[in-house]
Amino acid sequence: MSWSVLKALRENPDVLRENLRKRFMPAELVDKALELDKKWREVVTELNQVREKRNKINRMIPRVSKEEREKLIKESKELARLEEELNRKARELSEERDRVLSSLPALLHESVPIGPDETYNKPIRFWGKPRVPKSKLESFLKETDGFKVEYELIDWEPRGHADQLEQVLKLGDTLRAAEISGRRFFYLYKDIVWLEQALIMLALDHLTKKGFVPVIPPYMMREKYYLGVVDLETFKDSIYKVEDEDLYLIATSEHPLIAMHAGDTFVEEELPRLYVGVSPCFRKEAGTHGKDTKGIFRVHQFTKVEQIVFSLPEESWKWHEELIKNAEEIYQMLEIPYRVVNIASGDLGAVAAKKYDLEAWFPAQGRYRELVSCSNCLDWQSYRLRIKVDRKGRREFVHTLNSTALATTRTITAILENFQREDGSVEIPKALRKYLEPFEAAPKDVIVPIKEKYVKT
RNA sequence: GCCGGGGUGCCCUAGCCAGGAAGGGGGCUGGCCUGGAGAGCCAGUGGCCCACACGGGCCGCGUGGGUUCAAAUCCCACCCCCGGCGCCA
Description:
By secondary structure, the chain is an alpha+beta fold. The protein has 2 domains: 99 residues, Serine-tRNA synthetase, tRNA binding domain (Helix Hairpins), CATH 1.10.287.40; 330 residues, Bira Bifunctional Protein, Domain 2 (BirA Bifunctional Protein, domain 2), CATH 3.30.930.10. The chain is built from 15 helices and 19 strands. The strands form 6 sheets. An 8-stranded mixed beta sheet has the order 1-12-13-14-17-11-10-6. A hairpin with a 4-residue loop joins strand 13 and strand 14. Helix 3 runs antiparallel to helix 4 and helix 6 packs across helix 14. The longest helix is centred in the first third of the chain and has 37 residues. It is elongated. It binds one RNA strand through helix 3 and helix 4.
């Protein structure tokens, strides 16, 4: 049993080189890893031989005469020095090798579009009938190029979600939040709070009906486990650390949910394991200065319902399709027009072998924007966390998959734009009403502007 | 946070005081036996390296150090679990 990437390195390095080329990463990494691996194996072989010799001597010591004993102890001590030196060398080499190895990305699926950046992402299907303001028609036609997407042309301009939330409805405040906590934080009030709760319930309801087990995970985790689920770049750019503690705030419940099975060996019948995680997500959003600066589209903290699957290796591609389908069903229930995009190789993280994004139509922006990410990580995470399946004595690493079911803030922004009426009110998607019905204070059909803001900004 | 007990392979457990090649049971896999099944018996059931293979070796008893020719066993630090005390929403 070995990691598919390590196996490829030793048996078929050209496959790995090709993989790196397709991801626009330096292919020399392969040669470096190969060389380190080769050297390490040489040193380990030699080290094992020295140890064998010394072990044999040590086992003889209690069974020989006193004079003989002195001689053997001396010999053993000499070998110990040699062993220590080889051991140090082997350790250095393996650490260096593992550093290179852990920077190697998952093997791409053949259907991943090849290209250096997101402009090569490939839309694969569209759903819904978007409302398109006249001013955004050209942009819409470009975004749907090659597909026949029915749309409704409207002759008024919906407000962007940020203005709609803060200026018109007055149900959110990012200015005061910026003062209290910093940019990319928010206060949300009243109907939006109910809306968020209803969205969580809708997603939970939908997935638990399909057998996903709901989980609330720890919101912080140790570095050791974090490095089992994300690559170093992601770690540096998106994860908050707790001062003076070996703890990091989770960027998604995917991370503690995958780590939940660290070190476990499943029996075949226990797979697949399906989970739906609910948690706040904390992200530094480093390197996104200037992007989506208004409103709550890109924020440091939001709530997300997440699908997680631990699957048999041969079933992971089936589950990948299943997860994106589940997410699509949720947005169909919410009646939010969307498209599914196959993410290009250069835009794909090291952990994923293939990724679908579900992008919702935003009428005021005239663009499709990401709401959902759905990835198959193959054995990238399970190798690091030693999550295995015992198949009648033979062991393999399981495959792990993750997909957003619903991220609350982004879905709220999509509702604010797609369900906005010309008079400034926002209709509530019908599928949410049953989750609002039991509560007296909750809105039922429509969200209307309130008279006063809660803070004097 | 303090005091005490503990962590052994997929699961349970012996070994620790008194250092010298990890033993038993269960489960699972394969084989023998059987008309068939069961029982019984035999073997296998952590990771790594060398080897086409047959095999051989190394590491591994929560993690990392130390003592020693030799550590599951002795010493130190840390993590986790159980019990008690303390603190607390």
